[in-house]
Amino acid sequence: xxxxxxxxxxxxxxxxxxxxxxxxxxxxxxxxxxxxxxxxxxxxxxxxxxxxxxxxxxxxxxxxxxxxxxxxxxxxxxxxxxxxxxxxxxxxxxxxxxxxxxxxxxxxxxxxxxxxxxxxxxxxxxxxxxxxxxxxxxxxxxxxxxxxxxxxxxxxxxxxxxxxxxxxxxxxxxxxxxxxxxxxxxxxxxxxxxxxxxxxxxxxxxxxxxxxxxxxxxxxxxxxxxxxxxxxxxxxxxxxxxxxxxxxxxxxxxxxxxxxxxxxxxxxxxxxxxxxxxxxxxxxxxxxxxxxxxxxxxxxxxxxxxxxxxxxxxxxxxxxxxxxxxxxxxxxxxxxxxxxxxxxx
Length: 345
Prior knowledge:
The chain is α/β, with parallel strands linked by helices. It folds into two domains: about 30-235, Metallo-beta-lactamase, Chain A; about 245-340, no CATH class. It has helices spanning about 5-20, 85-90, 105-110, 110-115, 125-135, 200, 205-215, 235-260, 270-280, 285-310, 315-335, and strands spanning about 45-50, 50-55, 60-65, 70-75, 95-100, 120-125, 145, 150-155, 160-165, 175-180, 185, 225. The strands form two sheets. A seven-stranded mixed beta sheet has the order 1-2-3-4-5-6-7. Strand 8 and strand 9 (about 160-165) form a beta hairpin. The protein is elongated. Keywords: Signal. It comes from Trichoderma harzianum CBS 226.95. It holds the Pfam family Lactamase_B. This is Metallo-beta-lactamase domain-containing protein. InterPro entries: Metallo-B-lactamas, NDM-1-like, RibonucZ/Hydroxyglut_hydro.
């Protein structure tokens, strides 16, 4: 028996009401963030032309290509599960010959074991294989073919260009480009219609996360698949998120600069203003002082950023605070914007 995400969330909701849990109400989701609905089985197949198909379950996305002889699958999200096979059968009864891993995270390839039958070749970047060997998981079989930089997968009449530009979201995460259909798939970077998932989508390298928007725009694509939420993206979505991330970047830097300025009535972010009450309440507690400092800068960044983006990108009031916290810390330790903790002239 299949259990849908909707039924799980409904059960959780009922449990929450039963225990009188406090529920936060966020701003409504803009219509521009909402994609087509899934079917009664919990998935949606959308033809992108040239034998390419988006597979979405309302929360996660994957992609498959049909050749005259077989199917090439890209990712296998566990939320879609056995519906992956049902979705493919709704288009063709040809067997799956190849499975491409976008990266190693279980939420995107945790159903790979359902597809990894005899004769299916799994392809991934060598760093994806490395990560999978560190934390072995039978649900994510090791790849059969790995590569270091780029790899061209040409199967019958379908071509996929697999490019690695660095650890943007995770080591080994790939830019997956189908030139014939002008499709670009890059997981956990751009979230069409939405702000990114928490902490800049759990970016392992903030500088690369920011730069990746430029790298995306170097590709000639019509469709962008980000792996999450429920609609396709395009170049406009990439440009919109690039602007949002730039605002987070700028507002985090502004907060740090203000913290290094003398205290006055118009500058509540001066480090002297921030630390005085905290140190009085927590003498000799360095961590209490520092978290109070970072939290104050983070709140400033989040308030300014959210004020601009609320209603334009979904969940701006949900995750902007986490993005600002990540950006404040990255500005300090990655970029060297140390403010009052740097060498004072």
